[in-house]
Amino acid sequence: MKIDGVLSQAMLGIQRGLNSARGHAAEIASAGQFNSDSPTDLVEPMQGLKQDKLQVQASTEVLKAYDEMIGSLFDTKV
After folding, report:
1. Does pTM surpass 0.85?
2. DSSP 8-state code for residue 36
3. How far apart are CA 68 and CA 15, in angstroms?
4. Of 5, 51, 53, 46, residue with least CA distance to 24
5. What's the Cα-to-Cα distance from 38 to each of 14, 70, 77, rounded to whole Å?
6. What is the rounded distance in angstroms from the CA atom of residue 28 to the CA atom of residue 24?
7. Which parts of 1-78 fold into alpha helices (H)?
8. At what angle do helices 3-34 and 43-77 cross, to 10 degrees?
């Protein structure tokens, strides 16, 4: 994979995680307005939020590794 491909994939992973988190948060926010008798309706969006958090964290770690690698390459060239 090209080095710029890694950057693109990391950014895409962060964007996807954040977009998905917005959707899950909207589901949680609207669940109480329609049916407060069923807390089980919140289980899937809550799990989704946890997965979204892990997605963003993992993509951020890829971005950090990319940054360190680029820094090392520049240090070696100079």
Report:
1. no
2. T
3. 21
4. 46
5. 32, 50, 61
6. 6
7. 3-34, 43-77
8. 160
Neighbouring CB atoms inside 10 A of 47's CB total 11
DSSP code at position 78: -
Encode pLDDT of 29-56 as tens digits: 887 666 656 666 788 999 999 999 999 9
Q: Alpha-carbon distance 46 to 38, whole Å?
A: 14
Where do we find the tokens 């690698």? 69
Q: How many residues does the chain have?
A: 78
The answer for 38, left when phi > 0, alpha when psi is -120 to 50, beta otherwise, is beta
